[in-house]
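Posting for a labmate who doesn't have an account.
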Amino acid sequence: MEKKPGILVSVIITCYNLEKYISRAINSCINQTLPEKQYEVIVVDDCSTDSSWEVISQFQGLVTAIKSEKNGGVSAASNKGISASSGKYVVRVDGDDFINKNFLHTMSEVLEWNDDIGFVYCDQIVVEKDLSRKQEINTLDKLLDHGAGVMFRRRYLDAVGFYDETLRNREDYDLILRYIKNFDGHRLRLPYYRYCKRQGSLSSHAEQRQLLKNEIDKKLKSQEELKDE
């Protein structure tokens, strides 16, 4: 896919069977205070079996829509979007989440003016199943747990590698751990990401996620030990 000149931020929205939520996610990303020529929105449908693709297609011309031929999981869908992106910075938004209108402008400004910062992440509003909302401080430990509301420098993603496509859960944990070994992050104390909790979402599978966390820790530790030999 041909790269677009002048793009500052690439937004990657991943979607699998989110027909009820995906238009909200897209609308929040295309209605930003950052000048529209400075960002792009790439929506990757991970071979949904519901009407998600039909909804996404209605935004043709406003977003770049990519439909996977087979379901590969969030990691594979994210990597498709990143590979197609042109931006200096990259942020991923889950198809059932959404963002504040100032998210792209403010987050990118932090990176533009601070060369020593490798990535920036913000606080969030957690939207519960009953639609009640609460603000949540996004500590690094919490970020490692859910991976939401992060803007990366694209060249640093190229350096550490993208998402591990063998992981269908905890992919953010793995990527951010690899990233922070080399590049520092900064927390922006503004609740600009809207993180939605819903029944059946990956974040609700606590036992499975803990097992994967242990496996990732073991894998990364083994890799470090091999480097030291």
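Reply:
Got it, the structure tokens are right above this. Residues 9-228 form a domain with the Spore Coat Polysaccharide Biosynthesis Protein SpsA; Chain A fold (CATH 3.90.550.10).
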